[in-house]
Amino acid sequence: MTDRELLRRIERSPGQRAGYKQLVREFSLGGGRERRLLVEHLARLTAAGHLLKTDREQWAIPKAPAKAGYQANNLVTGRLDLHRDGFGFVRPPQGDRDDDIFIPPNEIHDAMQGDQVLVELMPSRNDGRKLGRIVKVLARRNATVIGTFHYTREGRGSENFSGNYVTPFDDRMNQSILISCDAEMPKPPAASANPHRVLGEEATRSIRNYDGNNLEALVVDVEITSWPTPTRFARGRVIEVLGHEDDFGIDVEMVIRKHHLPRIFPDKVLVEARAVAHIDPEVIASRRDFRDLPIVTIDGETARDFDDAVLVEYDKASGHWHLQVHIADVAHYVTPGTALDLEARLRGNSVYFPDRAIPMLPQELSTDICSLRPGEDRLVLSCLVNIDAGGNVLDYEVTEGVVRSARRMTYTQVHNILEGDQRTRAEFADFIPAFERMKQLAEILNHKRDRRGSIDFDLPEPIIEFDEFGAMKSVTRSTRNWAHRLIEEFMLSANECVASWIETLGVPSLYRIHEKPEPRRIVEFEDIAASFGYSLGLGNLPVRKFQTKGERREHQRRDGGRGRSNPRQHEVPEDIPVTPRMYQKLTAKIAGKPEERILSYLMLRSLKQARYSEKNEGHFALAAPCYTHFTSPIRRYPDLIVHRIAKALLGAGISGHGHPGEAHLKQGSEHRAQRSEKHLGATSLAPAAGANGEMETIPETDLNLIAQECSESERRAADAERELVEWKKIKFMRDRVGEDFGAMILSATKYGLFVELGDLFVEGLVPIQTLGELDNDYYTFRENTREIIGERWGRRFRIGQRVRVLLDRIDAAQKRLQFLIIEDEAQGTEAGAPPLRQKQADGWDKTKPSSPKSKPNNKSKSGGAKPSMQRQAPKPHPFPKKKKTKHRK
Hints:
six-stranded mixed sheet, alpha+beta, single chain, disordered C terminus, about 900 residues, five-stranded mixed β-barrel
């Protein structure tokens, strides 16, 4: 039973709805495993918006969808994102930010953060923003909530409820979870130790004091037993006690539970993993043997799973290069419909935190039988590529094989070899020619990508170092040398070849796509780049006029609806013929310049986020017409799906040989379909056989669901990783309140300046109302120039400007650092303007809070100084723009 078969069965039912028992009967399902699979199918389709759960055991097909998830009866499905001020946004599936629907606080009803909801569209607001109200919750995403437990103080109870409460860690959940006083509490953690929790001695000591009664200020995980209503808070019961928020390891555990990352493998998954974790000699004998070749793995020092191995050879006679990329054959062990497969699909990908990881597959597979350990036989799916002297792929072959890695190398070792370190070269003398060949080929491939316009943002990434207590002690810049680059180039080549091979055959598959940037974002970047004297080189274009939402609101506020003035309008092309080469050329122009980091950062923000799709739409940033993810099946579920498709093709007798460009330069879609039919006939392609002994391709509807799920899982993992790092940065800065730092302005908004500290990669806010303390001026935000300007002296603050800031306090509620500007490094003091406030001048002492009436040591529990009466935290903008995320290749 596939998702497509299930949807078709419900579509054919009366009223396009069906019950659980009806489906069990119609599919002739037997024991518990088959019925469990049915429930999992239904839950997945409901979460994706393809089904509506009408009651406890009834599912229905939504009305015919229109563009961006819209439905004919004015209903929209989407995920609810709440704001800490009570309102929310719903984005339809496959929609962009312009499709976001604003939900007022009084129209959210019983929905919670992250829920899949059904929204009825209402007349748009005066500023043009889409408006809606939630009519039904389709799927709950917060079965549990992580937060801090508090006992109700005397007099704080209500007539309807008398009990305790939990304050959610997620500040978007602005309502407490009520806990009944007579609710059963979990056993003390020491009595029921969880091997999946990574806690230090500090946390262990704190939870030892918990005897099952004293929960005050401890972090707990709560199961929701009663969902909220417009007049009543949600209720729940405590199912797990973690410890105090500041204890070692608790922050990771809280982030894991906040983002609902699956962290515990069910027993049946572990049993299955142990059962399949072996290699049969018959399988080895049936494959191409690469065991006698000097193949090596190259990974980080702390890596435990080695899913790729490489070899480079050079043919002097022809001048051609032969690249071998061998990838662990995870699909041989994880087959469709098994417990292992369902768990891997649920997780979507591995999640990596600074001090631990949550793997997609159990260790019996990820670090053992699927890991290409040196000196051990391992099954692989290989891509063998022939490349000419110019880096052009002549042909390639995909095949099943077996390897025995000759050495496990690290990036540091390979880098030292390439840099001529004599000690390292002596240790690996036999492999020196191999690594030098790898570098030569990687340089050739890199130059080839440059010629076609591939974008390479070589921005420094922060690496956080921790002490033995788990506290952050420093932030260093990551090094991206040729040891990293050569593996990147080889993996990119393999991914492109496999994608081209599958698409040429016309077989449904998963692709990694990166769509063309939106015209409005391109124009916004052009405006900012122009202020630095740069441009993408777009030239004159046909345009259309539009207003920003902020300018419409500002015009309505000033004009009062009297129509006396015309609002400012912008001109934006309907479609901009931007190419990756334009970004590439600009990247080269700014290399090494002071403005390189800010412009590269803004270029990244102008691009869309890469995602998975069953339809090939090319990869803009790589300038690749066809691209997929094939090289990391241990840690990414889409790679596993591509492996299954490739193995099915090979198992059906299809040749693994291919030539680049066949799918795009020589054939149209109709020609590809004919070619596919000619090559494949009635042969099946899916890894699992059907009832009649034949096999089928994976339906595009199933691939569409997998693509959506994996894209969401990827974003969920990225959000969790980023949140933990930011949280640790804030903890790291607690003891540095009152210190000053060099910083750069990342963005200017109507509620302040967001700045990034020079070498610490730490971000924070300079509230706009604090700028007036610099020179007794009044500062306002100018949206047309994206600047904050003083009304009296005309001092300007703009993106990319260097400033000197002082850490004023830590906003514990919003988990944000708040700074004050004390010196303008780039602009200096403008003519006629008073000098900026200087540290150690005019009675200024950097060890004291900025307000003269504040006490120097007045610290809050979070470690920051309490806000003074003279300078309150800025009120959040009622309609903040959502933070853009960095796209991934």
